Amino acid sequence: MNDLIIFLSNIRWQDVLDIALAGYLLFRFYVLFTGTYVFRVITGLAILWVFQRITVFMGLIVSSWAIQGIMAVSAIIVIVVFKNEIRSVLQAKNLKSILWEFPVKAENTPIEMIVESVYDLAHTRTGALIVFPGKEDLEEIVQSGIPWGGLVSKEMIKSIFWPDNPVHDGAAIIEGDRVKEVGGILPLSRRDDLPSYYGTRHRAAAGLAENTDALVIVVSEERGEVTIAKGSVVSRVKEKKKLADILQEHVGVSKKQSNHLRKRNLELSIAGLVSIIFIAGVWFNFTSGMDTLITLEVPVEYTNRNPKMEIFNTSVNTVSLSLYGSGAPMRSIRPEQVGVRLDLGKAIAGPNTFTITQGDITLPPGVSLKNVQPSIIEVVLDIPVKKVLPVQVDWTGRLSEHLILKAVELDPKDFEVVGGKGVLENISTIYTEKVSLNKIEKSGSVVVKPVFNPAFLKTSSGLDAGIKITYEVEKRSNSTKH
């Protein structure tokens, strides 16, 4: 378990991206070539590769060599024999269809067939009246219908409305994928707002739509137009796609289509998961025998410091080490086995610059250093001293013209500061945080903190106590006389 945790902790984001990208490419290969002979042959080659890795693991030299030779020859055969099939799959209209679109098998659904049939009838100016029931029963409204029960097809719809067919003037009722009735008589609409050129078919469609939740399609033999009626709306439909969308919304997706869609989504999900697992296995197989690169953040330790001096500031506290080695040592590496130590034996008071070398880094056997960032560190050392410094308010802005700052008191008035001797020699005052005069309208007080510059200075108590500023203002007297 610990080995697994160590292995997972050593995986870089580049490795995750590598596996994800290669897995997606394998998944796209499945999407594009599934069901073809190429896919079956490649699947066989993948199985051969698995057996070849098993023979290598078991030390079966001859068997491994033989399988590897078969795979090499088979790969060439696939490219030569199936080049036409591969070209036909990859001859896409755009890059999108190769990289992320999912090809859908063409299926002549009833809706598609109905739409095609309707516009074929419109093209030949053959009148038609087709009813798609909703949830309401039409048995009491549609009269004289002849039971039919045939499967929906383009030929059937065209034959029903063929001008020499006795039932061509009536309505055909379609439920699911079957024509339930033909020759039905629909109630006529009595609306006054319908166009004057609407004939009996259009008024029959409007009449049924007004009284039920059915959707009715009308094909005009005079104008070759396709019109739909639903509710109180009667409108012309010029595009096949729009008519298909309207029908789809009215009848909904069939159970068979839903099951097919769920099955297809499940199949693609399993294929994606298998692709990632397979590529992860291949990645592990390759990296287990090759040099592995990892990056560790390691804290910097300082040794041999002059006991009279203290470290007041450093440019960084940790460095990033890029390490490489064979798979096994890199997977078993532990953070405590890696260290960075800088020798301060020759450091002087003030700023010091150190360059990290190989000798400053401790590594376990089998692990080598590739890079260190940053490689240069600045360390400020000095003899610690204490100094009492007065506090001064850092005012900003201006008082209102009618006010005068009469008195200011600070509590405390000074601080005992601890810092490097060289730094404190050049500091005579501690300033407060900025206090805005613009906001002062009357006498009062405010508590602020001291501002230490450089930031590594601190009070002798170790706490940055607040400074209470009590100020007194008064109104400016008007000395102008008239």
Strands, helices and their partners?
Elements: H1 2-9, H2 13-33, H3 37-58, H4 61-81, H5 83-90, H6 95-99, H7 110-123, E1 128-132, E2 146-151, H8 154-160, E3 171-175, E4 178-184, H9 200-211, E5 215-219, E6 226-230, E7 233-236, H10 240-251, H11 255-287, E8 292-303, E9 310-314, E10 318-325, H12 327-331, E11 339-343, E12 350-355, E13 361-362, E14 367-373, E15 376-382, E16 384-396, E17 403-411, E18 414-420, H13 421-424, E19 430-436, E20 444-448, E21 450-451, E22 458-459, E23 467-475
Parallel strand pairs: 1-3, 8-11, 16-19
Antiparallel strand pairs: 1-5, 2-4, 3-4, 5-6, 6-7, 8-10, 9-15, 10-14, 11-13, 12-15, 16-18, 17-23, 18-22, 19-21, 20-23
Helix pairs in contact: 2-11, 3-4, 7-8, 7-10
Explain what you see.
With 482 residues, the protein is an alpha+beta fold. It has four domains: 9-103 and 258-287, no CATH class; 110-253, YojJ-like (1 (3-Layer(aba) Sandwich), CATH 3.40.1700; 292-382, RNA Polymerase Alpha Subunit, Chain A, domain 2, CATH 2.170.120.30; 384-475, YbbR-like domain (RNA Polymerase Alpha Subunit, Chain A, domain 2, Beta Complex), CATH 2.170.120. The chain is 36% helix and 30% strand. It is built from 13 helices and 23 strands. The protein has helices at residues 2-9, 13-33, 37-58, 61-81, 83-90, 95-99, 110-123, 154-160, 200-211, 240-251, 255-287, 327-331, 421-424; strands spanning 128-132, 146-151, 171-175, 178-184, 215-219, 226-230, 233-236, 292-303, 310-314, 318-325, 339-343, 350-355, 361-362, 367-373, 376-382, 384-396, 403-411, 414-420, 430-436, 444-448, 450-451, 458-459, 467-475. α2 crosses α11, α3 packs antiparallel against α4 (61-81) and α7 (110-123) packs across α8 (154-160). Residues 105-109 have low confidence and may be disordered.
